[in-house]
Amino acid sequence: MQQWLSWQWTRNGWMAFGLYLLLAVAGLKLGLPVFRQLLLPAMLACGLIGWWLNYRRYRLIADTPTAHAASAALGHVELYGVAANHESAVNYSPFSGRRCVWYRCWRYHNDRRSALSGRTLDPLTLDSGSLLSVPECSDQSFVLQDGKQAVIIHPEGAEVQPPHRESWQEGNETLVEEWIDEGDPLYVLGQLHSHGGVRPDQQAFRQDVGAKLSEWKQDQPALLHRFDLDGNGQINEQEWQLVRAAAEREVRQLHQQLASTPPTLHVRKPEDGKPYLINTLTPQGVAVSYRWRAWLHALAALMSFLLWLHLGAAGS
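Below the sequence we write its predicted structure tokens.
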């Protein structure tokens, strides 16, 4: 729910400001006293939260230079390229079976409210009775292709703003899908990691040998069958040296295989709590969109505060 609320305040389009309209309509129905005492402070708080969330993202994007994937340093990174599926693991949306790299979908009952609105309703605007399922987001990784360098994107925990949306009717239900298509421009701001291509250090070698020995100890019959050379049912000191040498040999072979594996780059949600963003705008376009939303939320907060002062002065 926290991720959905954050997405609602930082998303594209005018729906990010729909909460203000709902609170204003509620104020007209409940009367001026309730509107001034409860709803205007709520609108002010929403404006300040919306400003802070969007301005924080704007400053983070503006202060992070766009890196080329082939030369990017590990850590917090901003990348821009083209979206693609893994060659051996293509993603498909569950409702339409559409081929895509990422999707978000939900379904809801067609009640009187949805009929009057005449548009697709978002999950946060639906009550629990209308929403038939929790919005489903794709968690399958996909690829950002930057020239010849491919980066694997893990979307878990990301704030994704897809460019495509489609909705259709099935009986008394509306099905909604949002998606990022293959070939779409892809902007990612997150934490860059590298897997493979590096030989583990001595500490990792000792830890892996210890883990291998612990694993073998769990199966005493197999251990005795391999290393109890005198057949007395016990592993003596000399035999234990053979056990340890065999474990070191297996771990060394595994580490050599890992070192010979070509390294792969992966982007995941930052561990330090910074926003993890996936978008299809250019880096400049992403920064500008967050800046505009930040100041529009600030304007909503300012207007709510001024109206609160005006109604207070008029009522005194």
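The first helix runs from residue 2 to 10.
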